[in-house]
Write a structure and sequence with these properties.
203 residues, Arc Repressor Mutant, subunit A, 3 domains, 8 strands, binds zinc ion
Length: 203
């Protein structure tokens, strides 16, 4: 498109697939002198699959009264509310505890919003979305059930010794010439005094 002089940039929030030339859209676009019907048709065509979403539009009007527009993602709060299954646009104040989302849902929201956030880093986008969620009273939970292998790995990595029967080995107490019995089971530090026994103490 040749460079045309921009006369106006208009920001709108328009229901997906359901724009009409009536107010409030007509009220805002009327003074810009563009063909409102043309905008409505183009917009509705592009957003057929986004019915129920409020779509933010940035509309550029040129000197010759032609226009083009780009669509932005819904506000972060709306994306989060939709994932919560709450009715968006209900007018409810989000200061009330809104609910809980999983980390995976937070990621989904972040990926959707990323194009608006000036970042290609999902982690960064997630941080932004988490901040919005927090301000809305939405909790983010891991909420993923760990697999058996994960739980097993966590268990063995923990410092708690597993339940076991002590198995004593004789060791020299560091820095002395004395000896003591020490349980050889991983993470068990149980010791018993050595009194010249020929066999390890019974467990
Ligand atoms: Zn032990």
């Amino acid at each position: 498109m040749a460079k045309k002089k921009i006369t106006k940039v208009i920001k709108l929030q328009v229901p997906g697939g359901a724009a009409t030339p009536a107010p409030p859209i007509g009220t805002v676009l009327g003074p810009a002198g563009i063909n409102i019907g043309e905008f409505v048709n183009q917009f509705n065509q592009k957003t057929q699959d986004k019915r129920g979403d409020i779509i933010r539009v940035e509309l550029t009007v040129y000197e010759d009264r032609t226009f083009d527009f780009v669509m932005k993602q819904p506000p972060a709060s709306r994306i989060l509310l939709k994932l919560l299954g709450k009715d968006k646009g209900s007018g409810k104040t989000p200061s009330v505890k809104a609910g809980t989302l999983t980390k995976a849902q937070l990621k989904e929201a972040a990926e959707k919003k990323m194009s608006d956030l000036n970042t290609t880093d999902v982690e960064q986008a997630m941080k932004v979305m988490a901040g919005t969620a927090r301000s809305m009273g939405i909790d983010i939970k891991e909420q993923r059930h760990r697999s058996f292998m994960e739980r097993f790995a966590l268990h063995t990595a923990s410092n708690e010794p597993k339940e076991h029967i002590h198995r004593y080995n004789l060791e020299t107490i560091p820095g002395t010439d004395k000896k003591q019995w020490r349980c050889a089971v991983r993470n068990c530090n149980k010791t018993l005094p050595f009194n010249g026994e020929h066999f390890p103490p019974s467990p």
